[in-house]
Each structure stands twice: as C-alpha cells, then as structure tokens.
Design a protein that fits this description.
- There is one protein chain.
- This protein has two domains: 132 residues, no CATH class; 78 residues.
- The chain is built from nine helices and eight strands.
- Strand 2 and strand 3 form a beta hairpin.
- The longest helix has 19 residues.
- The termini are far apart.
- Pfam families: Phage_AlpA.
- This is AlpA family phage regulatory protein.
- InterPro entries: AlpA.
C-alpha cells in the first residue's frame, strides 16, 4: 500500500483494527474528545489550517503526554504490518524521540528504522486497549494535571466570570448542554484558556454525546464557576 498521508487517518470512518488493541489515532482522538471536546476532524484542522493555534497547542500537548507514557512503559505499543499479519510488541525504547507528532499523524512506523522520520512506514501502531482503558480510568478519577500541557499562560489569567449563563446561551442550549462555542461565550475565555482550565484538573470536561460529538453540562460549569468565585 502507499505510505499514509499525515492526518488522513483521522478523516477515515473505517480504520485498521487489531484484536484487543486500539489504533494510535483512535487513542489520541479518544483522549482529545474526552478531555477537550476535539474530534478527528478538529485534529486534522488544527494541523492543516492556519489560525487554529489553540487547538494545535492542545493536541500537541496530548501527543507529548501519550508519547512520554509510551516511553515510560505506562502504555503498551504494538505494531502490525500493513495489509495484515501477526502483531508484535513495540519496544518502549522506540519511542525515544524528540518529536512524536509525525508518528501520531500517520499512526504508522518502519520498525527497522523507527528513529528516521524520513523512513517509509510499513506497520500500523496500536496500543493495548485494556492497559489504555485502565490508565485513562485511573487518571480521570484522580484528575492530575495533563503532563506536557503549558498550564501557565503568558499573561494574567482572566477573571472567573459569573456563574449565570447569558440569555443568548440558554436560548440555544437544549437540555442545558453546551457546545464549546457556547462555553467560550459564557466564560469570555479564549480556547487556550479553556483548555488550560481543563488540563489543570479543574474545569469540567465535556460529555460524549455520540461517536463524534460532545457537550458540556451547564450545571457542572455553573457549579465550578460558583465555587471558584467563592475562593
């Protein structure tokens, strides 16, 4: 098969599969959606379109985080040849890279030349699904800050806004479920500030409403804002 085009895998509804394993792209998309409400198309847009710097920063932080977890052996990597074949464990040492973005862009690697960014990929990359799920459940329960995310902003953090949602938000929020644009309107924050608030283990995460859609619960945001304004 031809070499994967960077980020193209995130556009595909049907992706390579391996029993008991999760394609690297699926793992990144799962974390991005669950944490920041960013789906596969958002990931593609962040790296292909100018002007999506906040989304790109958020995705890049997740790439660094997951890559570091693979280096440390917290997550288990596997590879399988294009077209099919027996899966093999991917040594943690093959994640000793300065930049993981190119690898996450294709979910593929040439195992014999894993450190060469110009090597033509021959294998898909997967994660052990059981290990990944256990890690994510443990992290989500404790909500430690996201490793690799620049928590501190370049300037003073915006003030905590009032907990009451504006009428313009309430009028377009059926079931009191908010889109990201409505969360930004309610708080007056930039996307980068929203992502920092989430990554710092505080602001509510979005709730998955389907395979590629997530929303924020208004009552959770109101409770968080009320608590922060008291302190």
């Amino acid at each position: 098969m031809t070499a994967p085009v960077p980020w193209e895998i995130y556009r595909r509804s049907e992706r390579p599969a391996s029993g008991g394993r999760l394609l690297l792209a699926d793992a990144l998309e799962y974390v991005a959606t669950d944490l920041f409400g960013l789906d596969g198309q958002d990931i593609v847009s962040a790296f292909e379109r100018p002007g999506d710097a906040d989304d790109r920063l958020a995705i890049a932080s997740l790439v660094r985080w997951l890559g570091a977890l693979l280096v440390d052996g917290v997550l288990e990597g596997w590879i399988r040849p294009f077209g099919g074949g027996e899966p093999e464990r991917m040594p943690a040492s093959s994640w000793e890279l300065d930049d993981y973005v190119a690898r996450f862009a294709t979910s593929a690697v040439c195992p014999e030349r894993w450190s060469d960014p110009g090597a033509r990929p021959t294998h898909w990359i997967f994660l052990d699904e059981r290990v990944f799920s256990a890690w994510w459940e443990e992290w989500a329960a404790g909500r430690e800050p996201v490793d690799g995310y620049p928590i501190a902003g370049g300037s003073a953090e915006p003030e905590i806004p009032p907990a009451q949602a504006p009428a313009s938000v309430l009028a377009t929020a059926p079931g009191r479920l908010l889109k990201r644009t409505q969360v930004l309107e309610m708080t007056g924050w930039s996307k980068n500030t929203l992502y920092r608030r989430i990554a710092a283990a505080g602001f509510p995460r979005p709730v998955a409403m389907g395979e590629s859609m997530s929303r924020w619960r208004l009552e959770e945001i109101e409770a968080w804002l009320t608590d922060r304004r008291r302190h």
